[in-house]
Amino acid sequence: MIYLLQKLFNRLTILNKTLQTNFLEKFPQALERAQEVKLLVLDVDGVLTDGSLFISPDGVEYLKVFNSLDGHGIKLLRSSGVEIAIITGRNSPMVKMRAQALGIEHLYMGVDEKATALKELLNKLDLHPSNCAAIGDDWPDLSILTKVRLALAPANAHHEVKAVSHYICNLSGGQGAVREVCDLILSAQGHYQRLLLQAKE
Questions:
Q1: Helix/strand number for the chain, H first, E second
Q2: Rounded distance, CA 88 to CA 187, Å?
């Protein structure tokens, strides 16, 4: 009897570790949906950053903090042939500079109707929403997330955003969530191991 209980405990321990290390088991659709992605659309505040806004006494935003892991993930994903776009409701010279540094050509700032911007971008690239993934954290992103093939949310996203997402990141915005998404798409499309081997050469 003790042997059987010990065996059951060991199996439960292994299962628990698997759930902790293989986050995709919670979202079985994610890998399949990611296979068809040709465009990844990013929000900024709460996705590429942690959502904090640094405002000077005269009302000007003076700082945004980005994550270097996210940046490299974006570069890797671009190298695999996936287009990257930013659609954000705020205007920011810092976002413009970051986009330029990462080679992101499709930048939409000061956008009130994100779904309209997405439609314009898809027409420009001759793509369909079924070729698109998007990550957002709050209600302004819902009009995009409900239309794309792969909807993603950082761990810090509002619960209504998580409710429509096919994959909820283990990491928060500004803390590696975008890199997690890039790794997911690279893995689904068979590029992750190849790029990893190249990095080790």
A1: 9, 8
A2: 27
| pLDDT digits 0-9 by tens, 85-121 | 999 999 999 999 999 999 999 999 999 999 999 999 9
User: How far is Cα 148 from Cα 180, in angstroms, rounded to an integer?
Assistant: 18
Q: 3-state class of 61 per DSSP?
A: strand
Helix (H) or strand (E) holding 119: helix 114-125
Q: How far apart are CA 13 and CA 177, in angstroms?
A: 27
Where does the pLDDT of residue 23 fall: very low under 50, low under 70, confident under 90, or very high at 90 and above?
low
Residue type for position 186: L
Residues 65/175, Cβ–Cβ less than 8 Å: no
What is the pTM assigned to this prediction? 0.87
Classify residue 196 as left (phi > 0), alpha (psi -120 to 50) or beta.
alpha
CATH of 29-200, one of 3.40.50.720, 3.40.50.1000, 3.40.50.2000, 3.40.50.2020: 3.40.50.1000
Domain coordinates in residue numbering, the chain: 29-200
How long a stretch of residues is the chain?
201
